[in-house]
Amino acid sequence: FDESLNVGDNPTNSRGSESFSLEQIQSDLLDESESVRGHALIKLARGIRRKNKQLLDEITTCPTIMRVVLKQVADSDSYVYLAAINALAELAYWKQQFFDDMVEFFLDPTEKLKSILEFDMDNLREEEKETYLLIQRVKIGEAIAKANKNL
């Protein structure tokens, strides 16, 4: 038994609820490691689902989190993009604004992706571009379906 740890050192309190900080989540989403980004997205979704007041207040004052999560949906790693799909579904279920943003993305993924991603899709061959856009659209469609299922 290690007595060197203080109660305050643990990120969970006695009831087992995590501490949710949008700043920490956003910082983790910039990490190169897929596992760190995926965990940040899981934590974001969990905080929204549990209606963590601190996190919801921070999201309300910083709605750009939607753009950050959409960027993660385009990731090629399944751990990251599946966690991002779940985070999007939680955002959309929580607030109509985020649901509307997802529908807009679904209807016109080309323009939304150009504004979110660093690379230029115009450099892709037409066939590659169509496939890439279809894949992103399917991912967003899954998030829309998950949000609707929860209604």
Automatic annotation (TrEMBL):
Domain of life: Eukaryota
Listed name of the protein: RNA polymerase II assembly factor Rtp1 C-terminal domain-containing protein
Residues covered by the RNA polymerase II assembly factor Rtp1 C-terminal domain: 23-148
Organism, as annotated: Onchocerca flexuosa
PANTHER family recorded: TRANSPORT AND GOLGI ORGANIZATION PROTEIN 6 FAMILY MEMBER, TRANSPORT AND GOLGI ORGANIZATION PROTEIN 6 HOMOLOG
Coiled-coil stretches noted in the UniProt entry, renumbered to this chain: none
GO biological process, one term: protein secretion
Family: Belongs to the Tango6 family.
Pfam families attached to this UniProt entry: RTP1_C1 (PF10363)
Membrane spanning stretches: none
